[in-house]
Inverse folding.
């Protein structure tokens, strides 16, 4: 069963497949969702609200204005300013304050994935 996010919009309820969200960008009390099919949706929800809803689905906060789905990260660039490169070609800045937490979370998630795909020996 696919995970869904249900959000109220001015047109009614939007039922969104969580696995199609690439990233979410904050703009005051609104958030703009970017999808894998290059469509976007602006909702009247804060980034903090959406972060709490997506906590179990491997989304991570990398900046005060960005929440990113780990499944869509193609590359990480380290340096004075760290960046994430996403499958849709976007480049997202990682704040200095959130860099350490992002790397720890990213490595933890990948370690768990690796452990679940290793066959058991008898």
């Amino acid at each position: 069963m696919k995970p869904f996010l249900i959000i109220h919009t001015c047109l009614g309820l939007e039922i969104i497949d969580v696995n199609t969200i690439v990233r979410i960008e904050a703009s005051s009390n609104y958030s703009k969702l970017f999808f894998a099919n290059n469509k976007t949706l602006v909702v009247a929800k804060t980034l903090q609200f959406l972060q709490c809803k997506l906590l179990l689905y491997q989304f991570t906060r990398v900046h005060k204005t960005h929440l990113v789905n780990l499944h869509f990260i193609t590359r990480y660039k380290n340096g004075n300013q760290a960046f994430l490169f996403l499958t849709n070609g976007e480049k997202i800045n990682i704040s200095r304050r959130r860099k350490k937490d992002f790397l720890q979370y990213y490595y933890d998630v990948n370690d768990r994935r690796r452990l679940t795909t290793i066959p058991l020996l008898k």
